[in-house]
Design brief:
single chain, alpha/beta, TIM Barrel, 8-stranded mixed beta sheet, two-stranded parallel ribbon, 12 helices, 10 strands
């Protein structure tokens, strides 16, 4: 563990949380003209975004730049992760016409890079993989120059589903690790940490040329040693791009916030990650998996393999 990281750790876990959010977590309320336009388009096409459903703090900035993360397969998740604001329960039947509507929205927005994610759909035979694949194909058909990033659920680790998505040739295969192994049972009871690592092994075996990406949210009770150990595990399965961001408790019913990481701590983790060999690390308090996604692709490509 680099000594510099210990030197900049601004708060021990025993210290009380501040009464207010730190200044570096304050963002402007959304409402610019592009934000209003995108919101109207999404409503017209009956589409969902994880930006809204997960209460992302960057929704104003990203939508004002004309970018959004489309959430397919409905807005009700079959799992109930303790940190997540997305509704859970029994999802409705999925809409087979949704991929075409997403492609239309991407075309109308003129996106260079589109991010597609979904709720978990453990109720479906392929866990939703075929709808992901069709969405990628529809976007490529309408905008051949638009790169597509898929932020997929774990598909219960099923290789057939992973293969289905990768055969549609997305430019980025993303699945979030979310937290450290010790906290999985508490924070992500439907997930399994070893399954996450196996997903990336399988993805690289199927499509070694497709960059893989994952994200970790910090502040749920992990130690810094655990975070670095997970980063090492992810490099061990050849993950290319890593995002690190601050956990913000959606409500009092969700997993309590343990601590705020400082910008200096995020910078130190960036340096550690790049030193490990990630092609790109996006690390900061407001970072989410899709934050500045297009820039992440460019930086990873510039860094090389």
């Amino acid at each position: 563990m680099p000594d510099t990281l210990y030197q900049i750790m601004g708060r021990h876990r025993a210290d009380p949380l501040p009464e207010r959010k730190p200044s570096w977590l304050k963002v402007r309320a959304p409402g610019g003209p592009n934000y209003v336009r995108l919101k109207s388009l999404l409503r017209d096409l009956d589409l969902h975004t994880v930006c809204e459903e997960a209460h992302c703090p960057n929704v104003g900035e990203c939508w004002e730049h004309g970018t959004a993360t489309f959430m397919i397969l409905g807005d009700v998740c079959t799992r109930n992760c303790a940190y997540c604001a997305v509704a859970h329960g029994r999802p409705p039947t999925y809409d087979v016409a949704e991929p075409a509507r997403v492609a239309r929205a991407v075309a109308e927005l003129g996106l260079r890079h589109a991010v597609i994610t979904s709720v978990d759909r453990d109720d479906l035979p392929d866990f939703g993989a075929s709808i992901f694949a069709e969405t990628v194909r529809q976007i490529h058909d309408r905008l051949p120059d638009c790169s597509v990033e898929v932020l997929v659920p774990d598909f219960q680790g099923t290789e057939r589903s992973i293969r289905t998505v990768l055969e549609a040739r997305p430019q980025i295969y993303n699945h979030n690790t979310e937290t450290v192994p010790r906290l999985y049972k508490r924070a992500r009871p439907g997930g399994r940490y070893p399954r996450v690592l196996e997903i990336f092994r399988v993805a690289k075996r199927i499509a070694p040329d497709v960059p893989t990406k994952t994200g970790i949210i910090l502040g749920m009770g992990e130690t810094i040693e655990e975070v670095v150990a997970v980063m090492q595990d992810l490099r061990g399965v050849d993950v290319d791009i890593l995002t690190l961001g601050q956990y913000l408790q959606p409500s009092s019913a969700h997993l309590p916030l343990d601590r705020y990481y400082t910008p200096a701590e995020f910078r130190a983790l960036y340096d550690i990650g790049m030193g490990m060999g990630f092609r790109h690390v996006e690390s900061g308090p407001l970072v989410r998996s899709s934050y500045h996604a297009w820039e992440q692709v460019e930086k990873a490509a510039a860094h090389g393999t």
